[in-house]
Amino acid sequence: MAFNFDESIDRRHSDSFKWQKYYEQNVIPLWVADTDFRSPPCIIEALQARIAHGVFGYGFPPPELTELFIARMAERYHWRVQPEWLVFLPGLVSGINLAVRALTGPDEGIVIPTPIYPPFRAAARGAGRRQRLAPMVLNDGRWLADLAAVETELTGVEKLLMLCNPHNPGGTVYRREELQQQLAFAQRHDLLVCSDEIHCDLLLEPGVEHIPFASLDSDAEQRSVTLMSPSKTFNIAGLGASLAVIPNPRLRMRFIAQRSGIVPSVDVLAFVAATAAWRDGQQWLDEQLAYLRGNRDWLRARINELPGLHMASPEGTYLAWIDAHELAVENPQRFFEQAGVGLSPGAEFGDPRFVRLNFGCPRALLEEGVERMAAAVNAG
């Protein structure tokens, strides 16, 4: 490999949110979705050049960034995106909240798969919207949203369906027929769709492809808001470069109006980092994916050897969703934290019987963390 993903970078005494949680504690942080890999050299060099310029006034989206994104969508996902569809954002979570507030009213509801990335349900709660929860079920080793389970409960006040593809947690990459089923559900109930596709480039399973929901057909396009970002892919989440793709001009105007005066513009350095990532970062990404596949495969085999734990193989993301319901412990996250491993509690996603583990780290750190987990499980 040209890039060293085994490199150990000391983040304990940095401004890392991930590592500061356990500052001066003997706990390995494998929780929040932030990898421990050095970002690609092309991004670092581009940022250094921009900083050397020395002036950091208000910026605007570089035309090159728009062109790169449009070309990327066409080449990788066969999705023809128009430049006027793009709304640049300082973070994907703000996009989720804007979508909830722009696309639903105070007395309306949202259909949300669960377990799911916590900001989805937090956005609904924060806006005071009703929630209908569709369970994620394990089907042949893949976590899938069971929309049929919630269909009879709908009352007609529901106006928005939330998707996460690849799904977080669980790592499912939805197939075309599965997305078409979700589109049919949205059509039957006249729902708009917000699709979080932030992990779309992080596909680990050979032969699996990412299909943007909006690319299914013109109807899917016109009823959707798609959220994307290079942040997880290239480990630049702290810079806040994201965007919403909104083909329907009426929905786009509502979305933009909702952000006015509240959600700021994107930082000029974030624009620089995103441009460099999508222009020059492919070789680094290819090697990162190979490394992550190795971590995933090792982790799955090791976790499934441990009594009381089970892990399905994520097709995408660098996040493992570990079933700990057979452990004789009340709180799996606290149990492993006391053993020296910081994991995300499943309760935050919607199921306290699980924990989420971030394997986007050097293998040595991953092995040390999992061996601590093994020691705790076997001691019990």
Automatic annotation (TrEMBL):
> Which UniProt keywords are present, listed alphabetically?
Lyase, Pyridoxal phosphate
- InterPro entries associated with the record: Aminotransferase_I/II_large, C-S_lyase_PatB-like, Class-II_PLP-Dep_Aminotrans, PyrdxlP-dep_Trfase, PyrdxlP-dep_Trfase_major, PyrdxlP-dep_Trfase_small
Q: Is Lyase found in the keyword set? A: yes
Signal sequence: where?
none
Query: What EC number(s) does its UniProt record assign?
Result: 4.4.1.13
Stretches assigned to the Aminotransferase class I/classII large domain: 27-372
GO MF annotation terms: cysteine-S-conjugate beta-lyase activity; pyridoxal phosphate binding
- Report the coiled-coil segments: none
Q: Does the keyword Zinc-finger apply?
A: no
* Pfam families per the UniProt record, alphabetical: Aminotran_1_2
Its cofactor is: pyridoxal 5'-phosphate
Family of the protein in this entry: Belongs to the class-II pyridoxal-phosphate-dependent aminotransferase family. MalY/PatB cystathionine beta-lyase subfamily.
Q: What is this protein called?
A: cysteine-S-conjugate beta-lyase
Q: Can you name the source organism?
A: Sodalis ligni
